[in-house]
Amino acid sequence: MIKQRRDVLKSGSSLGVLGLLAAAGVIKPGLALAAWNESAFKVGSLEKTLAALGAGRPATSAAISIEAPEIAENGAEVRIGVSSTLPKVESISILIEKNPDALAAAFKLPEGTEANVQIRCKMSQTSNVYALIKSDGKFLVAMKEVKVTLGGCGG
Amino acid sequence: MANPMKIRAAAKDGVTEVKVLMSHEMETGQRKDASGARVPAHFITELSATWNGKVVLEAQFGTAVSRNPFLAFKFKGGARGDKVVVTWKDNKGDTRTDEAAIS
User: Fold this and answer.
1) Which homologous superfamily is B6-30+39-101 in?
2) Do residues B18 and B9 lie in contact, with contact meaning Cβ atoms separated by under 8 Å?
3) What is the predicted ipTM?
4) Which of A24, B47, B92, B98 is positioned for an S-S bond with B88, CB 3.0–4.6 A?
């Protein structure tokens, strides 16, 4: 009896270790989807988002270009493209200053993936759009203003 | 179960361009319905794309991504017939995986 109980305890504790490893990211779940970075997506203002991403006050770079319309008639669908000639781009984030939460999307680029992404975003109103790039361990940023005629918050 | 994604992948000069059109309401949680009740947020939070089993893009979305999200990106390599697989997951735990062959 006692032996059985020990076995159960043992298997229980080994499961616990597995769970811990999974939580620590040592064992990746099948899909390898990174956990959603709620602290950066739900933090609100541009400065707070930059801080949550660990970017601080990034320097402006002319090597980042933002492709977005000067005037977007419909704020519900604004196509924003970010590309860069910077070396070793590890991540690209798109931030919309005047949205309730500034961070719209964040991309992680493995080696071999080009620094060139396009996505459609919602914009609540005319705002500056920032493209934040982590290149060779350093954060750099570029900005473009997009005027919105009709906000994209369903209002 | 969510509707399938439309995925196009085309290889040209050693670079594959992938375009993905997802089918998702991407509800922000800010909108109110006719009775004035807040419509709860429902949106894609994470996405990953692989080419022949190798991860080529990982993305996280906020509520500011448009309804029925469109995404395009490029990676080096890829030959005709190779498989590109895209998976997304939303904040309610719903998930969808679709694939396309590179043309």
Assistant:
1) Immunoglobulins (2.60.40.10)
2) yes
3) 0.94
4) B47
